[in-house]
Amino acid sequence: MGSKILRQGDRYKAKLEKTLADGKVTKQEATAILRDAKDGTFRQVEAHYLSGFVGLDTRKFDPEAHARLLAFVKTEMVAFAEIAGDTGLPIPRAKPKLTEDSEKKGVTFKPKEGALTVDGIGADDALQGNVGNCYLIAGLASVAKVKPEVLAKNLVANRDGSYTVTFYERKEGQPRATPVKVTVDGTFAHRGSMLEYGSARSTKELWPLIYEKAYAAWKGSFTAIEGGMSATTLEALTGKKPGFFPVDDALGADHVWKQLERVSNASTAVVALSKPWNPRQGMVEDHAYSVLGISEKNGERFVTLRNPWGETEPGRDGRNDGIFTMKLADFLEAFATVEFAKL
Q1: 195 domain-assigned
Q2: Phi/psi at 163 (nearest 5 deg)?
Q3: Both 53 and 110 in a single domain?
Q4: Whole-angstrom Cα distance, residue 238 to residue 341?
């Protein structure tokens, strides 16, 4: 059935799409959208969809309606959108339940030989498998990019062959996240000889698999980690309170670039979420990408990103490894929000 965040996002996305049923968003519909956003229950997942919504073809909106929604996204939305703390089961499952699709295909847990790390923890290690948790894998890669020692410190190999991962949990009304230790055994979901879920670029490396399994055990199942927000995952991985900001070409390139400059440093893990509707060619819709850095060359601005699939990217750089650099103008067309946590 998927995660609570996934269901919430799907409902809000459908609600926004309903306003387009007659071909154009009216002033009255824009007023209703803004009223809902200010009623005290607006969450970051809804802010993500609203940011992508205002990026749709302006011909789909009454001009005044679009201007009001765009102004809210640019100036007020972050203040209204609450980023909920990441929480899991009081007692994590010893072995998380497989997804229904995996069960039907005969997936089983099997031991896998390997080492915690191969040449240390790196941003290009973790690869997404057959579960919709791009937000988690992109978050792992982003933390690995800026402070791999955080992930290394929170992962312990036990003498009995099990592993203990420390996550951080912030319950409702709690100002700070507190550590939660999750222990899993050394078996991983396989379909035949192939890993079903997350894997590592090096077949001998285990840390991404362990983190993913422990996260699923904490949540209760692999189905429970289908869909989510990287912001909450960054907090779960680091204990640091996350933030986000909207992205859209309508907001202005200078405005978005200043925001990117603010978070692109050696101590901040950053993830960008692609537009929920019609991202530019070569991009995966509503998908989390790790932001690996920004740069300027000959007066042109660029953003470097990584697809957690470890492949599939726009353009041709001669390597289908999921890592690519795009012009800022293309980034504005492709993405709806950026999430981050200062470590």
Answers
A1: yes
A2: -135, 145
A3: no
A4: 8
